[in-house]
Amino acid sequence: xxxxxxxxxxxxxxxxxxxxxxxxxxxxxxxxxxxxxxxxxxxxxxxxxxxxxxxxxxxxxxxxxxxxxxxxxxxxxxxxxxxxxxxxxxxxxxxxxxxxxxxxxxxxxxxxxxxxxxxxxxxxxxxxxxxxxxxxxxxxxxxxxxxxxxxxxxxxxxxxxxxxxxxxxxxxxxxxxxxxxxxxxxxxxxxxxxxxxxxxxxxxxxxxxxxxxxxxxxxxxxxxxxxxxxxxxxxxxxxxxxxxxxxxxxxxxxxxxxxxxxxxxxxxxxxxxxxxxxxxxxxxxxxxxxxxxxxxxxxxxxxxxxxxxxxxxxxxxxxxxxxxxxxxxxxxxxxxxxxxxxxxxxxxxxxxxxxxxxxxxxxxxxxxxxxxxx
Length: 374
Prior knowledge:
The protein is an alpha/beta fold.
């Protein structure tokens, strides 16, 4: 009997040792046989174009990484949960991904969701490189980085561009949305610095289907700045036609996708700031566009390119650091990836441009201004 008891005790001690080796202080338990990159984004709802594009771009990157042998022979997997651009859903999805073994992340696609996601990631010291959440709050913590331009950057760029090329300037913004207000506030501050007056109209989440009042008030402007998403921008463009307003409509990266919201009846020139030119002849960009188009049957937008780059940055940082432990805990991996990206000489040459990062988590890169249909 004593031998049986001793054997049982030994077996229990071995089980405890195995469990302890796979669980860290944050409660993370490794069951991984592949490196696990997680994400949330709107796969349904009004902003679904963004989430689906990021999903496709990220999945293409994973496919290419694995086809090339992964990292030291270990492959990667990617999972995105539908958050419908809602913070509470992003927070719940984070928990699901973490419990499933997520080790590193490309965060969330939209700013409101990413703020909630990042709060959870901070507690676990899980590294995130959001492709497209541009509000500063999304990268306020040391473990959070991004690929896209920040809201203040886009607001300043827009103000400089419009003042240089137009005299009578108007703006419409969504006062209920973090992305829109962040860009607008930076735009307004820059316009004040330049001592240039402009007209402003606004809307909110409860009133974003009819833009007759806003367009009527700005119909005599040479240009109308639209720092919000493509769905509402498409409605503004159609309203401009109905109101006889021929102003140039100028937006930021949220307007990527507006081509699907307008038709030949819209005659206004539409321009927006983006880091990605689908028509670029640069070899890496052209290869990405061709691979994406072949896989999905349509050309990529900026969000697809951002999703692709976000995954590839993580992979390149892990590769440079020679990560060689598929069971590595998120907090340990975060410290490795962050120090690698912030090290002197780390430059990522992506399809959305050449990028470096500093302690703020913001990417330094060069913008492009795209004219729709050109």
